[in-house]
Amino acid sequence: MALLLLFVIVLHLVTLAMLFIATMEKSWWAWGDIETSDLWHKCMFDNVTETWLCSSTSESDWLQAVQALMILGVVFSSISFLIFLGQLFTMSKGGLFYLTGLSQIGAGLSVFAAALIFTFLHQEILQDTRELTLGHFGYCFIMAWACVPLLMLSGVLYVHLRKRA
């Protein structure tokens, strides 16, 4: 049981770190190694100074929805971990971690919605940028999609986890 508890804690922390990186890092859409776009900025690599030059992305309703849902996912997952720690020390023996699991599943559903919106509406979200056929989804977008099943798995494990000691 202690091994399962350790596994769930490590899974939660790894997923939370991945979720935070996917929300804040600079690669939801990439045009090779010279230009990227994320939820917050559009960046170009300047060969002369060998630095990234970034500007704010153009605001659209869909981009704001993706931003809000990703932040909501981070908040739900963070709150879920804090609830778990509180329940771990205050819950009576034999209790289930329902609230923690439901919060983690809520995080998974919000990240799923954000990634789904970006998947189907990336042309509209990236409207001011250059030719989209020359670009591809970046690693943060892929990381967001990878977080969805991990968050759901973590939530289901929490729902079935009983406090033993």
Automatic annotation (TrEMBL):
The keyword Cell inner membrane does not apply. One of its GO terms (cellular component) is membrane. It is found in: Membrane. PROSITE patterns: PMP22_1 (PS01221). This is Epithelial membrane protein 3. The chain crosses the membrane at residues 62-84, 96-121, 141-161. Keywords: Membrane, Signal, Transmembrane, Transmembrane helix. Residues 1-17 form the signal peptide. InterPro entries: PMP-22/EMP/MP20-like (IPR050579), PMP22/EMP/MP20/Claudin (IPR004031), PMP22_EMP_MP20 (IPR004032). It is a multi-pass membrane protein. Belongs to the PMP-22/EMP/MP20 family.
